[in-house]
């Protein structure tokens, strides 16, 4: 298929074919990381900006490395938490960056829709690296890539996403992507963090991890924001951990070939126990490796580099 | 003061249940005669094909003066009003400082008179500084011109304070206007809590946050026999609760805004902050219930909740933008489109909601074309097609959710106290 988007804002608006196109492109980029010279000239002369209004190490470094491996020039800009605090509007920030001749803006922001606002006003490509609780498309793509690599398929799999669904962009993007590719998604968490409306988006809902654990092929464990306790969304971390933490004992009741995923960073001892995180069933570090390939694929497709590749042939 | 004759227009006067082609004669700032007339006048307008109705009354606007004059002033708000057929405005007290004392109310009246365009009426605060604790000097505010009382967006959370307000205002026969919102429940929400907020990951304000307060306030109105007016009802549940309270004899009235009758939470998918208001845009089912409420009289009036905000405040991430949209200059055309053109309300019903109904709620001797009434008159060309373009508005602000709407029907003249305050009447229509 032909890739026509300049931006990657979320998985909700992508078709099944578009998602597959990214995953397939990522397969060839993954091979680059295995070479002794881990660099290709694909984005030479292009400028990529990491515009992060929220602290992040993993995602930013992954994007940075992805861009560098494709020979782009990369700039990191750490924005203040909000434009209100900073005194410059998001649009102004975006326009200023664009005026410097930037080709791709990778943005992380605490406000849902911030990348969408930028995308509608800039000619540059905009890639959403997480907007509030809305979407985190590259995380979901790397999760799905990892599942497909491990299980050799997506269709017909049962994937449990466990944790604070309500505030999770990872859960939302995974839900869109996985259901489009034919998996069944079970969202599992405490009732206060699992809005019933998710059932209307094609998910199965469960508030009992032990009830579903034996039937799933994948368990994707979400990071718990510990400060949610103050909003009376759960009574204590201890209780959360007892009810929804993934430990070895629980895992014994799961399928033999179940894989455990986590978008990181881990709260060891809260949502995931060390004996699980470091077990053979954990593919957490594989996710990180695959993140690089997926982000290279996204940069390649959205920056229009594939067009140049085509015309030069 | 000139004598004015509008000939052969369709005269709509819901107060008199009148809908017929007639001549209307104005002298000395009053309606002098209505019928088949051949009276000499200083100005005669050919009104054929046009609608003549009582001047529109917008009982819920924010004119930002004093405090935020860069967003709106009483002058610019009055200009926007008369360009929209609105002859009387009731201004919410959430200015800086709040209208919570006699002098502040008088200032609003005075600025309205200085603007000299529309009738500008202050709504006084229920509590001092709108803090929800101690009653404001309601008696003094009445002396200063206040026609109703409201803490506006700072919905009084303390039920006992609300009870006292309903009791105390009874002495003056003035309504308490309640923006119904349980602030704990609406929390940090920025849009309606529903399927769309779940998808977008934006904080939701459940309809229950509004309905709990509608319920509380109707119960308190029953207990106190106070006069309660529900501002901008937005949910089906609120409509049902108001309907039941009215049936039980509670002295409650209600209004709805054009945007809650025409837009849903689906609009927020654009992340355009011109769809951010409080109460939030809800669902198609809520719109249907609101329209049903208008039809059966549960909802008495329509008001714009005109809420100007500076572009730099509004042009930010959806989560950070202030609540509110401007509404006066799109109001009539949007209502014609969603209510009259669809056959949901007749012209007479629509005009009732914009004239005599708010006049009754605010105890104003207005909203009628009866002989002897103040000559506040709106002339509408119901066939004029135009495109809503906020850049052409008189309002100082541009935060309008209806930009680009193709609409039919426009104010062509606005007469306040017998004087033409706004006119786009073509010369060939002026007969003398």
General description of the model:
The complex is a heterodimer of chains A (313) and B (432). Chain A has 313 residues and is of the alpha/beta class. Chain A contains 13 helices and nine strands. Chain A has helices spanning 16-32, 58-69, 83-86, 90-99, 114-121, 137-151, 169-180, 209-212, 237-244, 248-252, 274-277, 284-302, 305-312, and strands at residues 47-52, 73-78, 104-109, 125-131, 158-162, 184-188, 204-206, 218-221, 259-261. In chain A, the strands form two sheets. Chain A has a five-stranded parallel sheet with strand order 7-6-5-8-9. In chain A, strands 2-1-3-4 form a four-stranded parallel sheet, with helices on both faces. Chain A is globular. The model of chain A has no long low-confidence stretch (mean pLDDT 92). Chain B has two domains: 4-52 and 374-385 and 405-429, Urease, subunit C, domain 1 (Roll); 55-361, Alpha-Beta Barrel (TIM Barrel). Chain B contains 14 helices and 17 strands. Chain B has helices at 74-83, 102-115, 138-143, 159-170, 183-186, 195-200, 207-224, 236-247, 258-262, 284-296, 311-314, 328-340, 347-354, 356-361; strands at 4-13, 18-27, 30-35, 43-46, 51-54, 56-61, 86-91, 119-122, 176-178, 191-192, 204-205, 228-230, 252-256, 301-302, 377-387, 406-416, 419-423. In chain B, helix 7 (207-224) packs parallel to helix 8 (236-247) and helix 8 runs parallel beside helix 10. In chain B, 62% of the residues are buried. The mean pLDDT of chain B is 97. Chains A and B meet through helix 5 of A and helix 6 of B.
């Amino acid at each position: 298929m032909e890739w026509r988007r300049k931006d990657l804002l979320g998985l909700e608006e992508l078709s099944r074919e578009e998602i597959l196109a990214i995953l397939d492109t990522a397969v060839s980029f993954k091979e680059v990381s295995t070479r002794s010279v881990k660099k290709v000239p694909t984005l030479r002369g292009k400028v990529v900006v990491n515009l992060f209004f929220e602290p992040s190490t993993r995602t930013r470094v992954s994007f940075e490395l992805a861009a560098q491996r494709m020979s782009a020039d990369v700039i990191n800009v750490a924005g203040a938490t909000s434009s209100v605090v900073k005194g410059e509007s998001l649009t102004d920030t975006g326009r200023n960056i664009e005026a410097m001749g930037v080709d791709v803006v990778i943005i992380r922001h605490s406000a849902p829709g911030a990348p969408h606002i930028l995308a509608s006003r800039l000619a540059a490509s905009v890639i959403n690296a997480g907007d509030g609780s809305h979407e985190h498309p590259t995380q979901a793509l790397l999760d799905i890539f990892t599942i497909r690599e491990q299980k050799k398929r997506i269709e017909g799999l049962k994937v449990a996403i466990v944790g604070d669904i309500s505030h999770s962009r990872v859960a939302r993007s995974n839900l869109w992507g996985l259901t489009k590719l034919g998996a069944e998604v079970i969202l599992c968490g405490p009732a206060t963090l699992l809005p019933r409306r998710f059932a209307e988006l094609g998910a199965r809902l469960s508030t009992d991890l032990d009830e579903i654990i034996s039937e799933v092929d994948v368990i994707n464990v979400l990071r718990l924001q510990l400060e949610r306790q103050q909003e009376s969304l759960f009574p204590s971390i201890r209780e959360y951990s007892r009810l929804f933490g993934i430990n070895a004992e629980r895992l014994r009741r799961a399928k033999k070939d179940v894989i455990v995923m986590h978008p990181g960073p881990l709260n060891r001892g809260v949502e995931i126990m060390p004996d699980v995180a470091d077990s053979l069933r954990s593919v957490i570090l594989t996710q990180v490796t695959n993140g690089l390939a997926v982000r290279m694929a996204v940069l390649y497709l959205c920056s229009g580099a594939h067009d140049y590749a085509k015309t030069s042939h | 003061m000139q004598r004015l004759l509008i000939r052969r227009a369709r005269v709509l006067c819901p107060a008199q249940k009148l809908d017929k082609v007639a001549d209307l004669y104005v002298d000395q700032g009053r309606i002098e005669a209505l019928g088949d007339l051949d009276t000499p006048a200083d100005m005669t307008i050919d009104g054929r094909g046009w609608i003549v109705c009582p001047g529109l009354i917008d009982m819920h606007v924010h004119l930002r003066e004093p405090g935020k004059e860069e967003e709106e002033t009483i002058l610019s708000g009055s200009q926007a009003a008369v360009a929209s057929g609105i002859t009387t405005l009731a201004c919410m007290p959430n200015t800086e400082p709040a209208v919570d004392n006699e002098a502040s109310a008088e200032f609003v009246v005075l600025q309205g008179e200085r603007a000299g365009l529309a009738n500008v009426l202050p709504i006084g605060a229920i509590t001092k500084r709108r803090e929800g604790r101690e009653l404001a000097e309601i008696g003094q505010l009445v002396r200063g011109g206040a026609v109703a009382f409201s803490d506006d967006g700072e919905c009084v959370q303390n039920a006992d304070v609300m009870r006292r307000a309903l009791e105390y205002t009874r002495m003056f026969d003035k309504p308490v206007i309640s923006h119904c919102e349980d602030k704990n429940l609406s929390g940090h929400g920025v849009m309606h809590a529903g399927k769309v907020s779940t998808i977008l990951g934006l904080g939701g304000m459940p309809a229950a946050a509004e309905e709990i307060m509608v319920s509380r306030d109707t119960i308190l109105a029953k207990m106190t026999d106070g006069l309660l007016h529900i501002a901008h009802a937005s949910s089906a549940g609120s409509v049902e609760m108001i309907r039941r309270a009215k049936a039980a004899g509670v002295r409650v009235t209600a209004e709805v805004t054009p945007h809650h009758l025409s837009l849903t939470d689906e609009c927020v998918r654009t992340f355009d902050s011109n769809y951010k208001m409080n109460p939030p845009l809800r669902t198609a089912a809520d719109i249907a219930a609101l329209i049903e409420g208008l039809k059966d009289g549960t909802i008495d009036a329509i008001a714009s909740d005109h809420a100007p905000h500076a572009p730099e405040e509004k042009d930010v991430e959806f989560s950070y933008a202030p609540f509110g949209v401007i509404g006066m200059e799109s109001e009539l055309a949007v209502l014609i489109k969603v209510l009259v053109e669809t056959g949901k309300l007749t012209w007479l019903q629509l005009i009732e909601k914009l004239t005599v109904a708010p006049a009754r709620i605010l105890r104003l001797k207005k909203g009628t074309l009866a002989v002897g009434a103040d000559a506040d008159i709106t002339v509408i060309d119901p066939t004029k097609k135009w495109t809503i373009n906020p850049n052409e508005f008189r309002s100082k602000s541009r935060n309008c959710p209806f930009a680009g709407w193709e609409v039919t029907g426009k104010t062509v003249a606005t007469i306040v106290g017998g004087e033409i305050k706004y006119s786009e009447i073509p010369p060939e229509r002026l007969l003398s």
